[in-house]
Amino acid sequence: MSDKDFRDLRPWVAFGACGAIWGSTFMAISFGNDALAPVWAAALRLVLATLLLTAWTFARGESLPRGAALRAALGYGICQFGINFPLLYWGEKLVPSGLSAVFYATIPLSSALVTHAFGMERLTTGKVIGAVTSFAGVAVLFSASFRGEIAPVGMVAIFIAATVTGFGTVLLKRGPRQGPIGANAAGSAIGAVMTLAISFALGEPHVLPTTAAAVFPLLYLTIAGSLGAFVIMSWLVNRWPVTRMSYVSVVVPVIALALGSVVRHERLTLVGMVGSVMVLVGLLIGMRGFRSA
Length: 293
Fold this sequence. Notes:
Layout: H1 3-33, H2 38-59, H3 67-91, H4 97-104, H5 107-117, H6 125-141, H7 152-174, H8 180-201, H9 212-237, H10 242-246, H11 248-263, H12 270-288
């Protein structure tokens, strides 16, 4: 494989890595919420991530973002961590993790609309059809989650979180090109301040994690999620259009379903297979939409 072939392949590897990691994080958040108050759990994750990301930045001989880059990183952090995380963590106390994944599958469509509004990308028919088809596939995958009583306020919280996270990626993309580790260090810092403030405003119990049930989800989400997937995604921001990147949100539920089949020996139903095929078709249509964009 030539150097050029390898460079062309790296974004696809990054895309797959994000999907693989985030395929397990909805469930990890749900497990963590059983041991800690939700927004407090998000705050602890962000505080730990800020310390580790800052140390990582300096260890690489790099500096934290400044000027316009810092403004972009803070805007990204406010949306991605300061707003998205509290709503997602709190919402998953009321909404099953599978249904949460369905709401996050709206990100490709919202990203296409936002980037078009900012004049960053063309809104093509392929992008819209791909996004709608993928969302429909994810909805079919988790159609069983729609049964029973589900708090509407929880669904609204998850939907807002999903929409805001896509907007945060757009803000990072619009700013100067910068290192993904430093950008996430700054973003996690402002997110930590916001989540701590929200947690205290909600009057949550602020118990430090001491049991395996509390420590493991916190460490996993910090290392695999904050230091892994979010850094990789921020690296991908410099190389792909936002809407193309956003399709990872429809790959995540399919990967989560596959992990459940392999690890927990869950049976893949006909409905699950139909939904997976719909997601794949939508993904192919959406990705092809960038050829003429």
